[in-house]
Amino acid sequence: MSPLSFRQFALARAIRAGDLRAAADTLVRRGLSPLGRLRIHQHHHRISLTRELAATYPVVARLVGERCFAGLAREFILLSPPASPCLFDYGCGFARYLAAVPILMEVPYLPDVARLEWAMNLARHAADTPRLAEVEPATSSGDFSAQSVAKLHASVQFVVSDYPVAQIWRANQPDGNPEEEVFLTQGGTQLLVYRDRDDDVAWCPLPAGVLAFLHALRAGLSFAAAAARGIDEDPSFDSRRIASALADAGVITGFEFPRTDTSPTTAISR
User: Are the CB atoms for 229 and 130 separated by under 8 Å?
Assistant: First the structure.
């Protein structure tokens, strides 16, 4: 590591960890004191990341309150500095961090609300993928080969919780109904989160059979094998009807056939 790179690394570490005095001694004294300049950088660093966390987790921030969220964010920033220059990538482990904070044990659903908000963030910033109808609109979305392997849109995320996190999220929107009661005892939820054809983040509840089917598709199983997983969870599961609906929604973006010894790989994008 070059002397300049070493100094830059030491300054970044000092700004993140809060120990500025040793790093200040390595800076040229010009104008504002080195310690004062570092404090400005440190303040900007913390404020920027706190604002980004609040933008990614607005419902978590509303549930715990502004002051509490600022304190949680400050500790999280110290424990988990950014690993990417893209701010929207920051905050991946926030739900896991919240689950480990003792004072938050009284709100056990909070980490799952954070997981929903992180899934929405991932869906919002996922790479764009051509939808079936955009590629070949004449192809029927009901034609599924047993051996084909479905491709899911890059935005697809799954959220499973023991709590009604979707209802909690809706109740805490600016236009939410303040009179709506959410009962934690009403049971959990399984959600598909994705970016729809209008490029808006959407979600829908997933019955057990559909969740098993989608997990199998994401794992690369054939359509027939994925359908079998769905039927294992729900004997009434109709794989073709569900796949057709998922294709129409843009969740399934195409199909590939496994390579064989006698023919090259064929891809069907619809």
Answer: no
- pLDDT tens sequence across 63-109: 999 999 999 999 999 888 888 878 888 999 999 999 999 999 999 99
Neighbours of 14 (CB within 10 A): 19
* Tokens representing residue 195 in the block: 């970016």
Which tokens hold the place of 96? 């896991």
Q: Which residue type, as a one-letter code, is found at position 220?
A: G
Would you place residue 29 in the very low, low, confident or very high pLDDT band (cuts 50, 70, 90)?
low
DSSP string computed for 28-53:
---SS-HHHHHHHHHHHHHHHHHHHH
Query: For the whole model, what pTM was predicted?
Result: 0.80
The secondary structure of 119-186, three-state, reads HHHHHHHCCCCCCHHHHCCCCCCCCCCCCCEEEECCCCEEEEECCCHHHHHHHCCCCCCCCCCCCHHH
CB 191 within 8 A of CB 205: yes
Binning pLDDT at 50, 70 and 90, where does residue 183 land?
A: confident
7 phi and psi angles, rounded to 5 deg: -65, -40
CB 99 within 8 A of CB 162: no
Rounded CA separation 270/259 (Å): 19
Q: Which amino acid, 120?
A: M
Distances (CA, A) of 228 to 40, 172, 237: 59, 38, 9
Question: Residue 168 carries which side chain, given as an amino acid letter?
Answer: I
SS3 category, 242: helix
The model's confidence at residue 7, banded by pLDDT at 50, 70 and 90, is: low
